[in-house]
Design goal:
444 residues, mainly alpha, 81% helix
Length: 444
C-alpha cells in the first residue's frame, strides 16, 4: 500500500475514534499502535513504549506542569473576578464597554494563566451572566469570551509555545516575546469587532446609558471596591513581568522561571485571598495535575503517532510533496495554513504542534520564512480551531458555563472573531515585523 493511501486510512481511523468520543490521547495512541503492528509486527511494541516514555522524559517539559500550576493558582482564586471588576471600571464607558472589558480581562488573564480553557472558564463564569443581565445578545456575550479565551495560547507565558520550542529546538524566550505584539493586536481586533457588533445591535450599548450605569456604581461606592480589586491583581502581573524578564534577560531557564512563578502565584493566592483552608489548595493541585497529565499524555501519544507516520514514510511523502510544489513561497505558505487550519479543527493545539512542527520547520526555513514568525502563524491557526467545530474546545466550555445558550448562538457569535484571526494572519504575512520587531529589539 502506498504511503498516501495508508495515511488517508490512518487519518480516517483517527477522526472516527474521536467522533465516537474517544479521548484524544487514547485515539492517537490506539491508531499508532495498530498502524505499527500492521506495518512492522509485534516487534514494534518495544519501540512504542520507548518512544512514549523517552519523549516526555525531556527536562524542558518540567516547565509545563509548573506553568499550569501557576495558572491554576490564578484561576482557582478570586483573581479573575478582581481583574474583571477593574477593567469594567475603566473600559465600561466604551460602546459595548462590558463586552470590550471582558476581552481585555481575557488578554491579561491569558498572560497570568497561559491556558485558553482556563481563561475562557474563569472570565466566562463572571462575564456572560453579567452581559446577559445588561441586555447583550447571547451571541455577543458568548462569542467575545470564547474568542478572548483563545489568547491564552499566544500571549506569554504560553504552554504551546514551550512545546513548539522543544519540538523545533528554538528559543522559548524568543518565542514568548514574539507572541506579545500579535497577541495584543488580536485583542485589539476583537475589541473593534465587539464595539461594531454592539453598535449594530443598538440600545443597551448606548454610551450615555452605560455612563449612567457607571455613575450609579460610583454612588454605591463600587469604584473604590474596583480600585482595591486592581491593587490585589497587580502582584500577579508583577510575577508575570518578572518571569518574562528572567527569560529574556537570560537569568533563568524556562523550567526555573516556571517553578518560581508557580510558587509565587500560589503563595500570593493564599496570602492575598486568605486561602488557608486545605480545600482550595487541594482544588488547585487537582486541577493542575489533571491538566498536566492530559497534556503530557497527548504529547507522548502524539510523538508515537508521529513516529508511526514516519516509519511508514507517510510524513516524508507529504513533506516531499509540499516541498516539491513549484509555486511561489506565499502560495506554499497558503497551503501550509490551510493544512494547519484543518488539523486544528480536529486535534488540540498540543497534538498538532508535536506532530507537524518538526516536519514543517525545514520546509519553512527552505522557503526563507522566519521560524519564530511561523510559530505565531501556527498558533493563530490553532486558535481558530478552538472556536470552530467539530472539536472547538472553547465552544463547549461556554456551553457548560451557560447551558441555556444554544450551541448555534455560541458558534455564530464566535465566527466573526475567527475572521478577525484570519485578518491577523494576513497582517502578519504583510508585515512580519509585527511578530519579529520586539524580539529583535530585545534579544538582537
Amino acid at each position: 500500500m502506498d504511503p498516501i493511501t495508508l495515511g488517508i486510512i490512518v487519518a480516517i481511523a483517527l477522526i472516527a475514534l474521536m467522533a465516537i468520543g474517544t479521548p484524544i490521547a487514547f485515539a492517537l495512541g490506539g491508531v499508532s499502535l495498530l498502524a505499527l503492528l500492521y506495518d512492522r509486527g509485534l516487534s514494534e511494541l518495544t519501540y512504542f513504549g520507548e518512544t512514549f516514555f523517552d519523549r516526555i522524559a525531556e527536562f524542558g517539559f518540567v516547565a509545563i506542569p509548573m506553568f499550569i500550576l501557576m495558572g491554576a493558582a490564578v484561576a482557582s482564586s478570586p483573581t479573575g473576578r478582581d481583574l474583571y471588576r477593574s477593567l469594567d471600571l475603566w473600559m465600561g464607558r466604551l460602546p459595548g464597554g462590558l463586552a470590550v472589558s471582558n476581552i481585555g480581562a481575557c488578554s491579561i488573564f491569558a498572560a497570568l494563566s497561559g491556558s485558553s480553557p482556563a481563561t475562557c472558564a474563569a472570565i466566562g463564569k463572571m462575564g456572560i451572566p453579567e452581559m446577559r443581565t445588561r441586555g447583550y445578545p447571547d451571541g455577543v456575550a458568548a462569542g467575545c469570551i470564547a474568542a478572548g479565551g483563545t489568547l491564552g495560547i499566544l500571549i506569554p507565558p504560553s504552554v504551546t509555545m514551550i512545546i513548539y520550542g522543544i519540538s523545533t529546538e528554538t528559543s522559548i524566550g524568543r518565542l514568548f516575546i514574539a507572541g506579545v505584539v500579535p497577541g495584543f493586536m488580536l485583542a485589539g481586533l476583537f475589541m473593534i469587532w465587539t464595539m461594531i457588533a454592539c453598535k449594530m445591535a443598538g440600545g443597551y450599548n448606548n454610551p450615555l446609558a452605560e455612563s449612567a450605569e457607571r455613575l450609579k456604581q460610583t454612588v454605591k461606592h463600587n469604584v473604590d471596591t474596583n480600585l482595591k480589586a486592581l491593587v490585589r491583581v497587580l502582584p500577579f502581573l508583577g510575577v508575570v513581568a518578572g518571569i518574562l524578564f528572567a527569560l529574556y534577560g537570560g537569568v533563568a531557564t524556562p523550567s526555573e522561571a516556571a517553578g518560581v512563578g508557580a510558587f509565587l502565584c500560589l503563595a500570593l493566592a493564599i496570602l492575598i485571598y486568605s486561602m488557608w483552608q486545605l480545600g482550595p489548595i487541594k482544588l488547585i493541585m487537582r486541577d493542575s495535575l489533571r491538566e498536566s497529565v492530559m497534556i503530557m499524555l497527548v504529547i507522548a501519544t502524539a510523538e508515537v503517532f508521529a513516529y508511526a507516520l514516519s516509519s511508514m514514510f507517510i510524513t516524508q511523502t507529504v513533506a516531499a510533496a509540499i516541498a516539491d510544489l513549484e509555486v511561489n513561497r506565499w502560495v506554499l505558505m497558503g497551503v501550509i495554513n490551510l493544512f494547519l487550519l484543518v488539523a486544528g479543527f480536529f486535534l488540540p493545539p498540543v497534538a498538532v504542534i508535536v506532530m507537524t512542527a518538526p516536519i514543517l520547520l525545514p520546509i519553512i526555513i527552505a522557503a526563507d520564512f522566519d521560524p519564530y514568525w511561523f510559530a505565531v502563524i501556527l498558533t493563530i491557526n490553532l486558535e481558530i480551531g478552538l472556536i470552530t467545530p467539530p472539536v472547538g474546545l472553547n465552544l463547549f466550555i461556554i456551553k457548560g458555563i451557560a447551558p441555556d445558550i444554544s450551541l448555534r448562538d455560541i458558534l455564530m457569535g464566535s465566527l466573526p472573531y475567527a475572521l478577525c484571526m484570519v485578518l491577523g494572519i494576513l497582517l502578519l504575512c504583510l508585515f512580519p515585523g509585527i511578530a519579529l520587531w520586539l524580539p529583535n529589539l530585545i534579544m538582537g
